[in-house]
């Protein structure tokens, strides 16, 4: 199974963030792997370990995005793709979804596993938009994944409680941060 996990480098929210002229002052800030994306990487690694598979992490952004890729590789991802184009600066969920869709088409994919949202913008749009662009079924807010042959059995948090769904591949799912406890990255 070929799995792609988009990862985002975000400002460490435990730091004292300063704002000047309506913008975040980036000097001295520490960037970390987005919490929801780290959960998605762990879920992808667990699926890979349960059968044969390959996990490719993808990050879109400036040079600092490389740190998120390195952490995902240290966790056990097999490959990393860094899309670094100054023209992407200031892009929104739609722009990132278009880039992710192009990467997925080029790399080939059975499953795209994204974090539910980004902790810097609190948006959760990139995954579902990419699914629509690629014509893939999408299940969001997943809290449990089990492999069932060429399908996945998913539990997700819905508006009225836990929902259970069977999903044929290829597909896209977004991971809730309660899905798992991400492993520590090796040195």
Structure description:
It is a single chain. 27% of the residues lie in helices and 34% in strands. It has 187 residues and is of the alpha/beta class. The strands form three sheets. Strands 7-6-1-8-12-9-10-11 form an eight-stranded mixed sheet, with helices on both faces. A two-stranded antiparallel sheet has the order 2-5. Helix 3 packs across helix 4. The model has no long low-confidence stretch (mean pLDDT 91).
**How much β-strand is present in the residues?**
25-35%
Pick out the low-confidence regions: none
Major β-sheet profile: 8 strands, mixed
Strand order of the largest sheet: 7-6-1-8-12-9-10-11
Total count of strands: 12
Figure out the total of helices.
4
Question: If you average the pLDDT, what whole number results?
Answer: 91
Structural class by helix and strand composition? alpha/beta
Q: Termini separation (Å)?
A: 26 Å
Oligomer: single chain
H/E order of the elements?
EEEEEHEHEHEHEEEE
Overall spatial form: globular
What is the C-alpha radius of gyration, as a whole number of Å?
16 Å
Helix content: 25-40%
């Amino acid at each position: 199974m070929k799995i792609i996990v988009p990862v985002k480098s975000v400002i460490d929210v435990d730091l004292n963030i300063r704002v000047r002229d309506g913008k975040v002052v980036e000097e001295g800030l520490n960037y970390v792997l987005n919490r929801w994306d780290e959960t998605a990487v762990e879920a992808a690694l667990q699926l890979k370990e349960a059968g044969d598979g390959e996990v490719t992490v993808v990050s879109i952004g400036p040079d600092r995005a490389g740190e998120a890729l390195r952490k995902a590789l240290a966790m056990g991802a097999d490959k990393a793709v860094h899309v670094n184009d100054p023209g992407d600066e200031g892009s929104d969920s739609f722009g990132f979804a278009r880039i992710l869709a192009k990467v997925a088409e080029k790399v080939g994919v059975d499953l795209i596993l994204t974090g539910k949202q980004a902790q810097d913008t609190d948006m959760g749009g990139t995954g579902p938009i990419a699914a629509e662009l690629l014509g893939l079924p999408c299940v969001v807010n997943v809290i449990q994944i089990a492999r069932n042959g060429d399908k996945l059995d998913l539990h997700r948090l819905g508006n009225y409680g836990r929902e259970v769904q069977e999903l044929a591949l290829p597909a896209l799912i977004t991971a809730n941060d309660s899905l798992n406890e991400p492993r520590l990255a090796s040195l």
